[in-house]
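for the record, two folds in this file. i put them one after another cuz i was lazy. first one right below, seq on top, structure tokens after. the second one comes after a little note so u can tell where it starts
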Amino acid sequence: KLEADMLEVKASKEQALQGLQQQRQLNTDLELRATELSKQLEMEKETVSNTKLDLQKKSEALENTKQMLTKQEEEKTMLKQEIENLSQDAKMQHKELNDRIQTAVTELQKVKVEKDSLVAELSAAKEKLSKVSDSLKNSKSEFEKENQKGKAVILDLEKTCKELKHQLQVRTESLHKEQNEMKKSLEKEKETSHQLKLELSSMQGQVIQAQDSLKQKEKEEQQLQSNINELKQLTEQKKKQIETLQGEVKIAVSQKTELENKLQQQSMQAAQELAAEKQKISVLQNTYEKSQENLKQLQSDFYGKESELLATRQDLKSVEEKLSLAQEDLISNRNQIGNQNKLIQELKTTKTTLEQDLAKKEQQLKEQNKALQDMQKEKSLKEKELVNEKSKLAETEEVKCRQEKEIAKLSEELKSHKQESIKEITNLKDAKQLLIQQKLELQGKVDSLKATLEQEKKTQQMLKEQMKKEEDELKKEFMEKEAKLHSEIKEKEVGMKKHEENGAKLTMQITALNENLGTIKKEWQSSQRRVSELEKQTDDLRGEIAVLEATVQNNQDERRALLERCLKGEGEIEKLQTKVLELQRKLDNTTAAVQELGRENQSLQIKHTQALTRKWAEDSEVQNCMACGKGFSVTVRRHHCRQCGNIFCAECSAKNALTPSSKKPVRVCDGCFNDLQG
């Protein structure tokens, strides 16, 4: 009976704890709803700002906001009702607990009085047995009466024990449900941690890819620098060749005046080509400097990203350590459950270990709750870190796109330079042919210039050979670049295959983890069965009357703790009420803002109706410009404004602007242009 009373008191304690947990859950739900309301209000503000562009959308958005406000007011009333119901339920539970504790105390006092009376009667019976044998008959009859009374009391106690057993079964079932929920939440957190690991691994892969792309870009820039140096060398060679040609032209000018004019023209063309080449070289130098600046920026971004990567890796290590600690805690919890099963078996022999085991279980439950809360906090922090890392990755991708665009521009410039060099080669060839023709014409006239002409032919052949060499080198470079591009494509395909293989491995690991979860669930069910069997065995054990004195003190301590928790719950309810008042103030502020937006919408609708009511003016009705008053004639033409429909002269309607009814800029008067721009 005493153990049953103990179990009843502990069950009442657990019920009170469950009630407090439910209140906390309701409080968290209220906070979540409050955050949702704030998010909804922010979304409404964004929709109202967008409605300034489209008047029709604005009216629909206002209707939606009104509906949302009505819903929020309804939810607000529902929240108030729920808070009042929670406070009433808490008060009722508090009263019921006090009543139960008082009844238990009164029953204990009655049992003590009965015990004292029985002990006194037994001592008197022993004295009577020692003194007088005749008084045995009387004492036997009295003893039988007392036995009957005791049996009746025992029957009552058995009935109460059965009722308490039923209550205990109900409470144990609720405890099992809570344990299941706790395990489900732990499994969910494990899954989220696994997902976080996968996402972090993918982020690391993306960062590695970004590093590889940066290295490739550095190589391409080095190649561009080498190409620029080669172009510089070519320009120097061309300068030397042009100088030699100018010397030869001067000699030819001194001999023949007719040749002077032609050679001067050719020298002028060569000077122009030199100036153009100098300009090209300056442009190339500017692009080279810009590319170097971009390289420096990329290097700085790369070093910053490397530091961020190190920080994320350190965070990953800390997260993995925390996960390993959590797994160790889970293993220790399982070991503790096994120890608890052993301790329950030892309850048959010792009663004092029962109280110690119960205290240990309560502490473990508290620790698990704390661990769960810590895990949830860590989960939220990890999610925030993931969001930050995703934003950083997006920034790196943007930088990568910019660099690729710059490389494409440089490649286009290289192509244009190649084309220009090819054009210059063709021009030089044409010039050579012209010179050959001139030489053939002059051979009959001037015999003294044959030696000089032969020298010029030799120089032209040298130039041809050099140009061929340059063309071959350019072709080789082009082929090498194509080979590099093909190799890079192959490497990317190999990387994609590796990613697919890793995905298959991960799916296999997930299936293995699911199988392990199934085995763990089976083991947990078998442990639950053992616990139920042990609980039945503990129910069969009936305690002695002496344990009641110790249990009364424990019950009083528990009662004090429950009272303190109830007071804490009332304080939390008051805090929630203050939060609700703050939310009401925020709602009032948002309603005022929505009313202001409605007024703005009305003013915009008035402007819209004014714009719709405007008519297209007829040419026959208007004889003068409606802005400056200039008269229309054959030279002064009429022009309609596509916004207001009025007729203006060309000067007053010279501006173009975008209107709601047109996709392209349209002719508009000065007044409508200012309105549209404002």
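(here's the note) second protein begins now
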Amino acid sequence: MSFGFSIGDFLAVIGLANKIRKEFVDAPSQFKAINDEVRNLSFILQDVEVDLSGKELSDTQKSELQAITDSCRCVCDEIYEKINIYRVLESDHSTGLRRVVRVWKRLKWEPDDIQDLRARISSNIGLLNAFNGRITRGNVAELLHRQDETERQAILDWLSPVNHAVQQSDYLSRHQPGTGQWFIDSHRFRTWVEKPEQILFCPGIPGAGKTTLMSLVIDELYKRYGNDSDIGIAFIYSNFKDEWTMYQLLSTLLKQLIQRQPSIPSDLKDIYDYHHKHGTQPPPEDILCCLDTIASSYKKIFMIIDALDECRSSIESRDRIMTTILNLQVLHHVSLLATSRPILEISDRFKEMPTLEIRAPNEDVQRHLRNHLGRLPRFVSRDAGLQDEIVTEIAEAVDGMFLLAQLHLDSLVGKMSPKALRNALKRLPTGTDAVNSAYKNVMSRIEGQVADQVELAKNVLAWVVCARQQMTVLQLQHALAVEIGENYLDQDNLPEVEDMVSVCAGLITTDARGGIVRLVHHTAQRYFEQTWMDWFPDAHSKKPPPASPTSRLISTKLNYNKRSVWRNFLGSLALHLWKISRYF
């Protein structure tokens, strides 16, 4: 227990009550009532000691229990003193020995002072019972709350396994301080925030920093309205590896809006109970009904859909998704902000609506570059003029593309002299094919590494590029560690995360919180889809050579019969193969 006073004080009162009970042995009937009260006090004190063991009490509860304990100790002390008043010394001849013992006086009725003490004991018993009852009710309420929270989290995870807070934190962590403020300060963004039911479409070229900018927008909304329960905030970060369905869209939005509510709607609980029991997925119409219900409880909803162009769906499906989003905007006071590459089929849906193009200002690109100059050779840090050249030349070459600026900066990392670095600056690719040229230069740098590093880099890239879904770092490590002919996964064969990332020369990034490994940008995926025959030609072949990731997976699978797979399923390679096989 933690009462703010020594546990010994509380146990001392219990000991004193038990001592008094022993003193009342053979007491006249006139003392029976107070003996019973002392016994009851002893029992309730012990109950409180047991019930509160290991519990952390509030300061108020500690003070209350301290006062009751002091009162109990005081009345017990007085009772013990009174006992001696009603007993006298007499000679005891029962054993044949001469000795003096205390015996109870013969009384005709219960003394008044004993009646008063009995009333005080009864009062303390009542206080202890009331205190213990409140604690018990509080424990029950806490237990029920925990059960409700467990059920709540289960329903939220069932709607969408994505941890949107972690996702938002990951993207926001890539934001460079001071960049993107032009967007937040723009008249069109302020109008979108301050006026009801606004739509703002934000097209932007690939690599312009749209996703990072949206993380800044979401952060701004939470700063303004995070504590306002009447304002809903929901967002979706699309990824080129994810194939969006209507159900995923609606359930993702529903999850985030429910998270800002104190309880789960009963109709959603019913849907969850039924489909969780049967292992089925509800139709989108059921989720849409729940979304309508929860959306109606908000005065205003901010909805951000990033990278509509990256929704890996058919044109018909994407059109249906956009129609649903726009219908939600009209029905539920939604302020909608959507980003996309300038694709005609998407732009046409927003052609009558306010538009704010996303293109990184030269100042933001320069600020980004200056924040990363520390990665360049040491001679750069000693030459302020060279630093200015680097920042100016790259910023002018990239035309508002953060991604290209980063790739160009990375290309300078290995330069050994100012002259070599300046020559590289003069050869920076520009124009419409600049990104692909930059990726080609990165691959050339990768191939310039030692043989083992080249092999690791190409295997990492092959797995990440060819996987149909995003892979975790651990899954990728296991995929790379599999060796043909081995019947177990050797933990000593797992490559280090830092090595996997570094040998890929900036093409691979990891989500520090979610554990996802991904290409640096969706344009890298498109580049490798066009050029994979140049870099890892065996990755998609039907009969790949043993060195390729696909053949390693297939050959390893074929080395296992059903019995060994089942026997080792939970603890060895079979589990990893099953996980990895979903990606191909």
